[in-house]
Amino acid sequence: MRRIIADGKSAGLVLAAGWIAIGLGVVHLVVAPLERGDIWPQVAAEGVWNTFTLDEPVTLGQFVRAEAFWTTFGSWGAPVLVLGCHILWSARRRHRVPGWLGWILIAWGLPLSILVPASPGWAFPIIGGLVVLGDGQRGRSSAGHRPTAVAGEKR
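Predicted structure:
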């Protein structure tokens, strides 16, 4: 059985959360590699297999290389992009995006925002808050009504 979002306001809040997550993921995946553009030709010249390590950087060059990895392929940009796409996909099909997912984003984003206020980590509590509010709006607007099960519907 799947739950259906009851009204446009809750869907709008959740859609906004999805778009913010998508935008954040795309910007992170596009801008971060450009900021470290000098590293990528070096990586390509050395061969991409096992080019990065998890060893603690000792020299400035190793640090710059590790930073390039952790701000691009090793970053949260791709997972946030995927999460945003799923939130958007769910909301457009009027599926419920559960509030607990938003609470997880808030719990992750608040310490991140406090520890590194200059980072875009502040967007996680915003995304999470929109999901929580959207789920709460859904609950209030459908008070007294049971969630609808749609059997056999294909999308």
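Summary: Helices lie at 8-35, 39-46, 60-70, 77-92, 99-115, 123-141.
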